[in-house]
Amino acid sequence: MDARLHPSAALGITLGDAHIIRNAGGSAREALRSLVISQQLLGTEDVLVVKHTDCGMTTFTNEDLPEEARKAVGDFLTFRDLTKTVEDDVAFLKEGGLVKGEGVSGWIYDVKSGKVERVV
């Protein structure tokens, strides 16, 4: 979701090569519905979970949000450890059975250097 990340440029893909699903924190749980549609109905084979350094989701917890928001949404899926959350999201997708696990990988984009590093 972060405006500093241009997924196509960072990953070297061109228009029409990929379905790009963006959300706060790069959450695979939040994107699951779209991932299932992409794979099962539109034929996507690979899924790349890409999160980035200096992510705003690491700067607050659910408790920092207004009570009305917590009641309406529940868990905002905040995190502290970037590498672990990439690993957790990849495991969630591979173990869930709704996404073809063999094509799932996890990456971290460094907003300062522009480099993308594979985690899983």
Reconstruct the topology from this structure.
Elements: H1 7-11, H2 28-40, E1 47-52, H3 67-73, H4 82-96, E2 104-109, E3 116-118
Total number of domains:
1
The CATH superfamily is identified as Carbonic anhydrase
Q: How many extended strands?
A: 3
Strand content: 5-15%
| DSSP summary: helix tally | 4
* CATH architectural name: 3-Layer(aba) Sandwich
Helix-strand makeup class: alpha+beta
The first-level CATH class is given as: Alpha Beta
Q: From the 3D structure, determine the CATH topology.
A: Beta-carbonic Anhydrase, Chain A
**Radius of gyration in whole Å, from Cα?**
15 Å
Give the distance, in angstroms, between the N- and C-terminal Cα atoms: 21 Å
DSSP helix fraction: 25-40%
Order of helices and strands: HHEHHEE
- The low-confidence parts are none
Mean residue pLDDT: 93
Give the biggest sheet.
3 strands, mixed
Going across the biggest sheet, name each strand in turn: 1-2-3
Shape: globular
